[in-house]
Amino acid sequence: MLGNFTFCNPTKLYFGTDAMKGLDEELPKYGKNVLLVYGGGSIKKSGLYDQVIKILKANGKEIFEDAGVMPNPTVKKLYEGVERARKAKADLILAVGGGSVCDYAKAVSVSVFCDEDPWEKYYLRFEEPSCKIVPVGCVLTMVGTGSEMNGGSVITNHEQKLKIGHVFGEEVFPKFSVLNPEITYTLPKYQMVAGFYDIMSHILEQYFSGEDDNTSDYLMEGLMRSLIHSSLIALKNPKDYEARSNIMWTATWALNTLVAKGKTTDWEVHMLGQAVGAVTDATHGMTLAAVSMPYYRHILPYGLSNFKRFAVNVWNVDPTGKTDEAVAEEGLRAMEKWMKELGLVMNITDLGAKEDMLDDLVNATLIMDGGYKVLNKEEIRDIFKASF
Ligand code: NZQ
Ligand code: ZN
């Protein structure tokens, strides 16, 4: 049953090869001071940096830069960004990059006018902002996280060995996002396929919750089928516009709150993956891939009917004459085959995790209660052991 909900997604999207014109439309709505946030330099190599600077200047903006946002942005970098934004008296934070840059921009946006320690307030106590929020706009360069149209913001604290996401409300969503699939062509294959699996995981972790007849499940099955189809085309030809644009659009809809309606949502794979990220600093999508198969095989008996549905409706498994268990297993095997074909990392050893990190991994894993089985610490330990 869908139950009661409100739905509002306030992010305005500009999509396609001419999406950059969205910047010209949006910039006049904000004050003069723009904090331009970006990562380790990919946007300089690709020429996107020059393009953005030109548009900012043409719109009469005073540009302040905050470069070097790392994949899995750290709390140390967040403190630095807050100081920069304060000095710049930023009227707009413009994030040009992947999910890390967008997430970081949101974290800065809720911290500039915050009197408390943002790590403790937002990421340890999960409190909502009670201060003025600086508006954020995004130019997306990497597809996967959905950060371009949601309130998610994940920050890593290496000292505390924790990687934690806060899902903020609509007031923190980007005001606008520019999505040009061609900008993603320069992504290395490793990042491209990691993003593909991030999308899949976002969908799966909403799909595998609840067992009622729900419109959201039908939407998600369509998104997954589109992703699987287009991912194999993009793997062969990364410059296939049709495939890359379909994947970009799928990623946005996978995590912009729509398909969560009527679902309890699980997110345990993200909690396991974030623990791996906290300990190894590995690429987000790969951390999810590396723990997924042991996790899904563990929870399959608790959500058998939807695992069977997944096998039939997403992977075209023929159920005739087979037990439900056999059909469900066949679906997972089909997914595993697809993951290997993409070249995803299928174990945490290859991401740098070692047996002596097991305690840290278990301690860093938050336990969620929306999936088919609420894990206990022993089960989490067993899933990590099976992921080495
Ligand atoms: O830093 P630069 O030089 O830009 O290089 C980046 C980075 O090294 C590179 N890259 C990005 N676009 C490129 C490119 N290289 C060449 N050409 C391009 N067009 O790719 C590398 C990875 O970028 P990153 O932003 O870290 O990747 P992603 O988009 O996967 O973001 C990962 C972060 O998002 C969080 C993750 O936990 C992780 O911290 N997530 C955020 C979510 C949300 N907001 O809702 C949900 C997700 O589940 C996820 O947890
Ligand atoms: Zn993710």
Tell me about this structure.
The chain has 388 residues and is of the alpha/beta class. It has 2 domains: 12-183, Rossmann fold (3-Layer(aba) Sandwich); 189-387, Dehydroquinate synthase-like, alpha domain. It has 15 helices and 8 strands. The protein has helices at residues 21-26, 42-46, 48-58, 75-88, 99-109, 118-124, 189-207, 215-236, 241-254, 268-280, 284-299, 304-315, 324-342, 358-364, 377-387, and strands spanning 12-15, 33-38, 62-66, 92-97, 136-140, 152-157, 162-167, 176-179. The strands form 2 sheets. A 6-stranded parallel sheet has the order 1-8-5-4-2-3, with helices on both faces. α7 (189-207) packs parallel to α11 and α8 (215-236) crosses α12 (304-315). Zinc ion (ZN) binds next to α7.
Name the features.
388 residues, alpha/beta, Rossmann fold, Dehydroquinate synthase-like, alpha domain, six-stranded parallel sheet, two-stranded antiparallel sheet, 8 strands, globular, binds 5,6-dihydroxy-NADP, binds zinc ion
List the helices and strands and how they pair.
Elements: E1 12-15, H1 21-26, E2 33-38, H2 42-46, H3 48-58, E3 62-66, H4 75-88, E4 92-97, H5 99-109, H6 118-124, E5 136-140, E6 152-157, E7 162-167, E8 176-179, H7 189-207, H8 215-236, H9 241-254, H10 268-280, H11 284-299, H12 304-315, H13 324-342, H14 358-364, H15 377-387
Parallel strand pairs: 1-8, 2-3, 2-4, 4-5, 5-8
Antiparallel strand pairs: 6-7
Helix pairs in contact: 4-5, 7-8, 7-9, 7-11, 8-9, 8-12, 10-11, 10-14, 11-13, 11-15, 12-13, 14-15
Bound molecules: 5,6-dihydroxy-NADP and zinc ion (ZN).
5,6-dihydroxy-NADP (NZQ) is lined by residues 39-43, 46, 71-72, 97-101, 103, 141-142, 144-147, 150, 152-154, 165, 183-184, 186-187, 191, 195, 198, 255, 270, 284-285.
